[in-house]
Amino acid sequence: MLVTVLGIGAASWGIIMALSPVLQIRRILNRRSSEDVSIGYFLVLLGGFAIWMAYGISIGNLVLIVPNSVAFCVGVATILIARRFR
To answer: What whole-number distance in Å separates Cα of residue 35 and Cα of residue 53?
Structure first.
């Protein structure tokens, strides 16, 4: 029971964290510039998300798969938008 509750809590918080770059996207769109955004930083994060997602898939753990999949998608969107406004 405790493991399930912790897993749901961790996955929920992971999704909130995964969506946090949306704030950066909003800033880029409002300023029409991504000068102050480090694309390299987001690339490093994408690598981590991909590894954790692959690990989650390999062990069949949705607590790892779902938040890292969301984070990966938001990270890709952030990079694409940042490159568009360079």
So the answer is: 30
Model-level pTM? 0.90
Tokens (6 digits) for 29: 């769109």
Cβ(46)–Cβ(72) below 8 Å: yes
Per-residue pLDDT of the chain (86 residues), as tens digits, is 899 999 899 999 999 999 999 999 999 999 999 999 999 999 999 999 999 999 999 999 999 999 999 999 999 999 999 999 99
Domains of the chain by start residue, with CATH:
2-84 (1.20.1280.290)
DSSP string, 10-70: HHHHHHHHHHTHHHHHHHHHHHT--TT--HHHHHHHHHHHHHHHHHHHHHT-HHHHHHHHH
Both structure tokens of 77: 């969107």
